[in-house]
Automatic annotation (TrEMBL):
InterPro entries: Homeodomain-like_sf, HTH-type_TetR-like_transc_reg, HTH_TetR. Residues 10-70 form the HTH tetR-type domain. GO terms for molecular function: DNA-binding transcription factor activity; transcription cis-regulatory region binding. It comes from Labedaea rhizosphaerae. Keywords: DNA-binding, Transcription, Transcription regulation. Residues 33-52 bind DNA. PANTHER family: HTH-TYPE TRANSCRIPTIONAL REGULATOR BETI (PTHR30055:SF234), HTH-TYPE TRANSCRIPTIONAL REGULATOR RUTR (PTHR30055). The lineage of its organism: Bacteria, Bacillati, Actinomycetota, Actinomycetes, Pseudonocardiales. The keyword Transmembrane does not apply. The keyword Metal-binding does not apply. This is TetR family transcriptional regulator.
Length: 206
């Protein structure tokens, strides 16, 4: 019974977000109110805020899923596999599966143009990046016998690497590079970013 209830809640959350995203991209984020989203979704404004803490989260709605996927990638990595290798593989898997998290595909340009053109959305996107780093640090503390400082330092380096991978794809598409070209080039981008992380910067620029 609980499983069915959770599925229904997830479906409602997804439906509200899908409707909100459509309205935001059609009319502009600043031109759509939460009340209008609620009306279009057939729910109350209070119900919308029961599922989404802020208006920004209606568009940037995948944060819970992103955090859960990162946790799974770390906790379910293979025997003897490093966290870096597991997250490199995760980035490759997201790209191969054409998952929205990979930030390569139809609609990416429109979506990120809207995000980057609104300061509230930009701020929330940056805040979510911080949240991902904190979540990654939390899972590292539990997964690897280490102190909090090392976990946070590792999480920031890993998070910056992942962020660089996805930001590279977004910037290319915003500049007009065809989606399939970006997709093909991302394979090398992922490897280059994680190779730099794994090799360190001791000899960089020397």
């Amino acid at each position: 019974m609980a499983g069915l209830r959770e599925r229904k809640k997830a479906e409602t959350r997804r439906r509200i977000s899908d409707i909100a995203t459509r309205l935001f991209l059609e009319r502009g984020y600043a031109n759509v109110t939460v009340a209008e989203v609620a009306e279009a979704a057939g729910v109350s404004k209070m119900t919308v805020f029961n599922y989404f803490a802020t208006k920004e989260d209606l568009l940037l709605d995948r944060q819970p899923e992103n955090i859960e996927m990162l946790r799974d990638a770390v906790l379910n990595r293979g025997p003897g596999q490093s966290v870096s290798a597991a997250l490199r593989e995760w980035c490759q898997d997201m790209l191969a599966a054409r998952h929205p998290m990979a930030a390569v595909g139809a609609g990416v340009t429109t979506f990120w143009h809207e995000v980057l053109s609104n300061q509230d959305l930009r701020n929330r996107a940056l805040q979510q990046a911080e949240e991902l780093g904190e979540a990654l640090a939390d899972v590292l503390v539990h997964a690897i016998p280490d102190d909090r400082w090392h976990a946070e330092a590792a999480a920031r380096l890993l998070g910056a690497t992942i962020g660089t991978v996805f930001t590279t794809a977004i910037k290319k598409q915003l500049s007009g590079v065809p989606v399939e070209q970006v997709r093909a080039e991302q394979i090398d981008v992922i490897d280059a970013a994680f190779d730099l992380l794994d090799g360190g910067l001791a000899n960089y620029g020397a």
